């Protein structure tokens, strides 16, 4: 077990290192380099040369890379070009909000998708199963922003149930203080993953229904409810754990769209505004942090899987 | 966004069962009657019997006809701005109304669809080719090359694809060929993983080992025996790639970093419609939105159908 965890950890560190190399390469693909991006199109050649010397951009690439790596490792992601604020302070401000949004929508996803998938599997090929399958098809194919737009149009514009904009003030507190403004963003972000998760849950329960251990439990006289919730559910939940880890990038990307629709000042909105303003230090900082979070999430999912499922080969 | 791929629309098991019954005609002696059917025929027959997949295929063909033949039957001016006809509701002359620059919305749905479909299919083809080569090399050579190549795949996969795309789009100016290239370059990861996994398992199969025993070279084994068996999985994945690419191009268009006007795609149209949510100009929002959903659902249905027919082939291997 310890060996497996260490091996997975080493692999994850390797992946994070490759991510930093990729981001470093991206940095050097900026038209005219970092100097041109920061100093603007009217900077003279002398100014650019000066900037490069000051910031070490005249050194060999591998020296630059390791210096950059050291900066990143100590949480120094540079300075936003447009917002006149260090990227790390921006991330500290915005990241908790995105994490809370992501966690709330993941919680909603699991609360809805798991029972839905179980119900569909137990009552498979009945009208309800077909309807749920059809809906999950549609939500899986619908762009998040379309769902968000329709949600605003229907629930905010026509029915007036919820405000069309997320809470604007700083910090995580307002999310809970003005929860009615969070309903639409959370549901919008959750719908796509509900569609995916419920399909997985359905086929996972179906796979388990005709396993030998189920027949054994039934033969021993366990009631159908007990078989379902005590025996099948525990096994059927296993793929969901992996899925939780795997869905992190999708949550972050979905958060980008959701945050831009509902003007929710989280990391996704920060990234989008940075992308529009070519504020590359912010973009790269967000990319590194989300990639790191994703790798960590996958690692956590794999480790908890190994702990929970004795069949995972260690 | 490519990371979660639920088994959307697996058909009820009996459809696959039907496929079995018809594909193997058993004579009274219990032996298969007549000439054995080829893998391709078997797969084709299963696909044909999957009603949902056929519906998907028909919808897809109709969508292509609508976008590429539609403008011939219903020509509209999608270049000149007409400020006298701005935001007209659906009515005579403009079945779906006009948008904020006076373009006919139905005609725009066609030209926008051309861009979405073209980019979707082309990006999927590029991603599939790059991914297949990458995965085959990694799986075939193994060792440290395999680890380096697959950790690279893991690393790119852990960067949310939309972030990567947005960054790439800020570096290069988006045009149709650029978008195809950028989308293709970010979407090859999943096929690379699939092909690598498949070739790892196929490498130790008896018939591949038999080739080696008979003195065949490794390359012969890969090209003649491994590739043909991987191709089914690859094609199935390619259809899902089309769906993903159409969605991604829509996302980029929505974020304002898609194709530049007067050209557009369905996502760009929706993006323009965003400004009018509060004025209830529904004809600027629902048509492109439903167009995306219908085409993506259709592509997914075709992909599911193909997957089932490939799985039947795999069972008989």
Kindly describe this structure:
The complex is a heterodimer of chains A (314) and B (317). Chain A contains 15 helices and no strands. With 314 residues, chain A is an all-alpha fold. Chain A folds into 2 domains: 86 residues, no CATH class; 226 residues, MetI-like fold. Chain A is globular, with a radius of gyration of 24 Å. With 317 residues, chain B is mainly α. Chains A and B meet through helix 1, helix 6, helix 7, helix 9 and helix 13 of A and helix 6, helix 7, helix 11, helix 12 and helix 13 of B. Chain A: InterPro entries: BPD_transp_1_N, MetI-like, MetI-like_sf.
State the order of secondary-structure elements of chain A, H for helix, E for strand: HHHHHHHHHHHHHHH
Q: What pair of chains forms the biggest interface?
A: A-B, 65 and 52 residues
Could you tell me the strand content of chain A as a percent range? Answer: under 5%
Which CATH top level class of the largest domain in chain A fits? Mainly Alpha
Q: What string gives the helices and strands of chain B in order?
A: HHHHHHHHHHHHH
- Mean pLDDT of chain B, rounded to whole units? 74
Portion of residues in helices of chain A? Answer: over 70%
Q: Tally the helices of chain B: what do you get?
A: 13
* Termini gap of chain B: 32 Å
Count of distinct strands of chain A: 0
Structural class of the helix and strand makeup of chain A?
A: mainly alpha
CATH third-level topology of the largest domain in chain A: MetI-like fold
Strand content of chain B: under 5%
Family (chain A): Belongs to the binding-protein-dependent transport system permease family.
Transmembrane segments (chain A): 12-30, 99-118, 130-155, 175-197, 236-264, 284-308
GO cellular component, one term (chain A): plasma membrane
InterPro entries (chain A): BPD_transp_1_N (IPR045621), MetI-like (IPR000515), MetI-like_sf (IPR035906)
């Amino acid at each position: 077990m310890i060996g497996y965890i260490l091996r997975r950890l080493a692999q994850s560190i390797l992946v994070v290192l490759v991510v930093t190399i990729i981001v470093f390469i991206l940095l050097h693909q900026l038209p005219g380099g970092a100097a041109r991006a920061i100093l603007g199109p009217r900077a003279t050649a002398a100014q650019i040369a000066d900037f490069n010397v000051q910031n070490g951009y005249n050194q060999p690439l591998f020296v630059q890379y390791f210096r950059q790596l050291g900066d990143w490792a100590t949480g120094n992601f540079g300075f936003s070009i447009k917002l006149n604020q260090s990227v790390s302070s921006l991330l500290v401000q915005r990241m908790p909000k995105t994490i809370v949004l992501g966690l709330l929508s993941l919680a909603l996803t699991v609360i809805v998708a798991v029972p839905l998938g179980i119900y569909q599997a137990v009552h498979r090929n009945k009208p309800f199963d077909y309807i749920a399958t059809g809906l999950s098809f549609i939500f899986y194919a619908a762009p998040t922003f379309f769902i968000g737009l329709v949600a605003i149009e229907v629930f905010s514009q026509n029915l007036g149930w919820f405000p069309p904009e997320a809470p604007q003030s700083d910090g995580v507190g307002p999310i809970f203080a003005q929860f009615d403004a969070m309903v639409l963003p959370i549901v919008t972000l959750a719908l796509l993953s509900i569609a995916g998760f419920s399909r997985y849950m359905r086929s996972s329960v179906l796979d388990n229904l005709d396993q030998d251990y189920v027949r054994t439990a039934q033969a021993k006289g366990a009631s159908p409810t007990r078989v379902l919730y005590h025996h099948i559910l525990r096994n059927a939940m296993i793929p969901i754990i992996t899925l939780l880890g795997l869905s992190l990038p999708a949550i972050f990307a979905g958060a980008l769209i959701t945050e831009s629709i509902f003007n929710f000042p989280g990391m996704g909105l920060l990234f989008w505004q940075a992308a529009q303003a070519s504020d590359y230090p912010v973009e790269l900082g967000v990319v590194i942090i989300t990639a790191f979070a994703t790798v960590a999430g996958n690692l956590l999912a794999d480790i908890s899987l190994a702990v929970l499922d004795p069949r995972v080969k260690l | 966004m490519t990371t979660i791929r639920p088994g959307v629309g697996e058909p009820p098991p009996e459809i696959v069962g039907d496929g079995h019954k018809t594909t193997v005609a058993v004579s009274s002696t219990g032996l298969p009657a007549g000439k054995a059917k080829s893998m391709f025929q078997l797969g084709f027959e299963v696909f044909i019997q999957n009603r949902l997949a056929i519906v998907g295929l028909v919808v897809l063909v109709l969508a292509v006809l609508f976008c590429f033949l539609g403008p011939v039957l219903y020509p509209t001016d999608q270049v000149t701005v007409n400020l006298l006809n701005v935001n007209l509701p659906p009515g005579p002359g403009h079945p779906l109304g006009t948008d904020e620059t006076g373009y006919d919305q139905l005609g725009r749905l066609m030209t926008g669809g051309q861009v979405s479909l073209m980019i979707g299919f082309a990006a999927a083809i590029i991603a599939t080719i790059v991914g297949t080569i990458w995965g085959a090399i990694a799986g075939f050579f193994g060792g440290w090359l395999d680890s380096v190549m697959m950790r690279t795949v893991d690393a790119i996969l852990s960067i949310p694809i939309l972030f990567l795309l947005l960054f790439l789009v800020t570096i290069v100016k988006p045009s149709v060929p650029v978008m195809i290239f950028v989308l293709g370059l970010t979407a090859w990861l999943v096929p690379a993983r699939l092909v690598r996994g498949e070739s790892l398992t196929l490498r130790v199969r008896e018939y591949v080992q038999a080739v080696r025993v008979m003195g065949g070279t490794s390359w012969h084994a890969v090209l003649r025996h491994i590739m043909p068996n991987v191709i089914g999985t690859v094609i199935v994945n390619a259809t899902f790639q089309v769906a993903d690419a159409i969605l991604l191009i829509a996302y980029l268009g929505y974020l304002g970093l898609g194709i530049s006007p007067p050209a557009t795609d369905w996502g760009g149209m929706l993006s323009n419609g965003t400004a009018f949510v509060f004025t209830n100009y529904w004809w600027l929002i629902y048509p492109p939105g439903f167009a995306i959903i219908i085409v993506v659902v259709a592509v997914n249905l075709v992909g599911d159908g193909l997957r089932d027919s490939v799985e039947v082939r795999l069972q008989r291997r």
